[in-house]
Specification:
Elements lengths: L3 E4 L8 H16 L7 H12 L6 H11 L5 H14 L10 H10 L3 E6 L3 H10 L2 H4 L2 E4 H4 L6 H10 L7 E5 L2 H10 L3 E4 L16 E2 L6 H8 L1
Parallel strand pairs: 1-2, 1-4, 2-3, 4-5, 5-6
Helix pairs in contact: 1-2, 2-3, 3-4
Bound molecules: magnesium ion.
The site of magnesium ion has 7 residues, from loops.
Length: 224
């Protein structure tokens, strides 16, 4: 039985890299076109430094500017502030998000989102993708003071949805935060890599794996 399907947000429902890339093309190509000479190289270097969201964005801007010999703290603050105010405008979800969520509803299961990140940034992504309306509950790490893979955040999500952890399926791109995290509390897991790589030394495996959200419904039927 599947009582609830829980999702990670970044790179699972929210096409984070693609959205960030589109924002940067606007920011550094149109709003601040005179700082960097080669937009394409700058955007890919930004994404490299960002490391799938592991590095704070102000540090990424600082490093990027340092690489062209500009140690301009005011400009770092300006670019970072512009990012914080505007990045959400470029937010897009992966293909098939609403179909996948509707199919979960048809199964009679609840929908939750559990995301690591800053409240104001994650909330804007949720709102921009209309996910606040489509999900029954969302849990943002900063707001609750817990981060995946801490078992407590998975228990909290299940509790808020009024379901048992063993009746939940968790879908995410991160092998450690999402799959190991959800598995250790007894949830079933589906890995949706979106470019993530499974670490060689990780012996745990997800119960299932999908390459697009259109495969989700079939994967859930097998796990049910
Ligand atoms: Mg993620």
């Amino acid at each position: 039985m599947i009582a609830a399907v829980l999702f990670d947000l970044d790179e699972t429902l929210f096409a984070r890299t693609l959205s960030l890339q589109r924002f940067l093309e606007d920011q550094l190509g149109k709003q601040y076109p005179d700082i960097f000479s080669n937009l394409e190289n700058t955007v890919s270097r930004f994404l490299e430094l960002d490391n799938r969201g592991m590095k704070p964005k102000d540090e990424v801007y600082q490093a990027l500017l340092a690489e062209i010999g500009r140690n301009d703290q005011e400009l770092v603050v300006e670019l970072f502030d512009h990012y914080e105010r505007n990045a959400w405008r470029f937010a897009s979800g992966f293909d098939g998000v609403s179909d996948a969520l509707n199919e979960i509803r048809e199964l009679g299961a609840k929908i939750g989102i559990v995301t690591n990140g800053q409240t104001h940034i994650q909330l804007r992504s949720l709102l921009a993708l209309n996910l606040d309306r489509m999900a029954d509950e969302y849990v943002i790490s900063e707001a609750v003071g817990l981060r995946k893979p801490d078992p407590k955040i998975f228990h909290l999500a299940a509790e808020r949805l009024s379901v048992r952890v063993e009746d939940c399926v968790f879908i995410g791109d991160s092998p450690t935060a999402d799959i190991v995290g959800a598995k250790q509390v007894g949830m079933k897991t589906i890995w949706f890599p979106n470019g993530a790589v499974w670490p060689h030394d990780l012996s745990v495996r997800a119960d299932s794996e999908i390459r697009s959200l259109s495969e989700l419904s079939a994967a859930l039927h097998i796990l049910a």
